Amino acid sequence: MKICMACGMPLNNSDDIGIENETGLFCKHCINEDKSVKGCQEIFDGGVQFFMEAVPNTDKELSERITRKNMNALAYWQGKDPSTNAQDECLKGDQASDEEFQVVLTKLASK
Length: 111
Ligand SMILES: [Zn+2]
Hints:
By secondary structure, the chain is mainly alpha-helical. The chain has two domains: about 1-40; about 40-110, no CATH class. It has helices at about 40-55, 60-70, 100-110; strands spanning about 15-20, 25. It has a two-stranded antiparallel sheet with strand order 1-2. Helix 1 packs across helix 2 (about 60-70). It starts with 16 loop residues before the first strand and ends with a helix. The structure holds zinc ion. Zinc ion binds near residues 9, 27 and 29.
């Protein structure tokens, strides 16, 4: 399955694909108008917004932890030197538990 390198969104339709570069595929939500990949904070904020809207009873605090867990699980955000701006402060901090994450995935899948 093709997924976005930066946010993990499934790319089932070619419409959803923003760019493909040497790193991999990125969805249309994770790129800027000039086709560059958005920064960590912007993608994080988009993720928080997405989970709050897509999953009932998800408050901002939970949504932030879920987004953090989701992004930290992606290879794109791993192994980056935190001292560079590639990985932002937003990925540090509390993450959702496996149980919380699973509940969200189940709710998303049932939509
Ligand atoms: Zn994306």
